[in-house]
Amino acid sequence: MDINFEQLLQKTSEFLTLSFRILKAAWQQPHAPEMFGIALGAFVLLILIRRFKAHRKPIKLFDNRAGVVEVSRKALDELVQSVCYSLGALNRPEVNIYTSRGKLCMSVSLRLESGQRLTDATAEIQNALTSAFREHLGVEKLGRIDVKVTGFKGLIYKPSTKFLPPAPPMRDDDDSILTQSNPLFDSVDDTKKLES
Known about the structure:
Layout: H1 5-27, H2 32-56, E1 59-63, E2 68-71, H3 73-86, E3 94-100, E4 103-113, H4 118-137, E5 142-153, H5 191-195
Parallel strand pairs: 4-5
Antiparallel strand pairs: 1-2, 3-4
């Protein structure tokens, strides 16, 4: 079967011209903008419903002789959170689990404690998630495990000296607040000085 490029181009041009004429004629009908708006809204709503259903649908992990093994996204999310908490995550990690080219992939966003080396901490999280998914779920086809650090908590360096200087040492016999040269309250009656 030999397809001529010029014939294909001509047929495509005729199809586009015919489609443009139909749309132009439909646009000139009464209430056409409203009808097109309703159709566009229904199309967008259909896409959103399909995405919502796909997001709630369990993820197929593998097939075996007895059937298909699927795990809910909530169970996978809980597994990722327990691994992250055991490694020192300071908040509830945000987890996005998806499949790409038949492989299970995930994106994890979390806060870490200050003072940890970022490369070591993220590599430890990725290795722990890989081993958890392989050992607990039997998943061999793992894809990308992206780790996003959203912040750090705590002091990186503890100050070696305090901000305020230390108070001078006090002796038991010296009451520096209540002395004759600097009394706390002047109990002498000053009215006698004013009269004289």
